[in-house]
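Technical annex B. To support the medicinal chemistry partners, we prepared a structural model of the target in complex with adenosine-5'-diphosphate, based solely on the information shown next.
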Amino acid sequence: MSTEPIIFLEQVFKVYGVGEAQVAALKGVDVAIQPGEFVAIMGPSGSGKSTLMNIIGCLDRPSAGRYLLAGEDVSRLNRAQLADVRNRKLGFIFQSFNLLRRATAINNVVLPLLYDRKSKLSPKARTQAAHAALAAVGLADRAKHFPNQLSGGQQQRVAIARALITNPAVVLADEPTGNLDTQSSEDIMALLHELHALGRTIVMVTHEHDIAAHAQRTILVRDGLIAETAGRLPLSRVSPPAAVPVAVGD
Ligand code: ADP
Ligand code: MG
């Protein structure tokens, strides 16, 4: 097993607001996730799960501490640089699917390729990639459908195809089954298992124990701290990545 984590957070703090109104949402969090791991993040409402996912997903920066994503220090990147990292390395799945209502399934799936300004793919190659991604989630025959013509489970599968089209190493899922019935939830979890079997790293927030049970390991967040980590992989002695860029200013 590789000993170099793909996600490595060291003493990460996140403080919102200023002065008297300050809220410390994360209070010194250490997280190490190995390439190919499937991890669930659980914890009570307000414990800091979304804050942690936003930082892992490069949607927000830590107030203090260090975050290495695939060996790259992303703790102090600016907004444009973070957007670039997101596009290159991460795929997102949200509870509310976040599809564009006025775009067909195929046009939703192709979007991340359009955002990638460095992409050298021709329009035809992009469309082909989007069709392949839709086929991979079992929706080849729904390419021209709009989100409101699809069931919740189908919409989430479109969202997964969109998350995968850039071939990200890490897939982040925030309550991916939160708006779905039991059968659709099982379908989505089966898809996440497939992605995991293909070697992708999956980090999923959920408050449902039967959904978390699909993961190899559960990280429990409580009051801005990691309260517990439990699962099938013993990772008690994870070493930090070898190639550590020099962090300026801490
Ligand atoms: P969870 O996802 O576990 O419910 P959050 O990460 O959303 O928890 O929130 C953790 C704490 O940080 C809560 O006390 C919340 O009120 C606060 N918080 C979250 N986002 C903000 C924000 N943008 N501004 C101020 N406080 C926030
Ligand atoms: Mg939340």
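Notes passed to the chemistry partners:
The first strand starts at residue 7 and ends at 16.
Residues 234-238, 243-250 have pLDDT under 50 and may be disordered.
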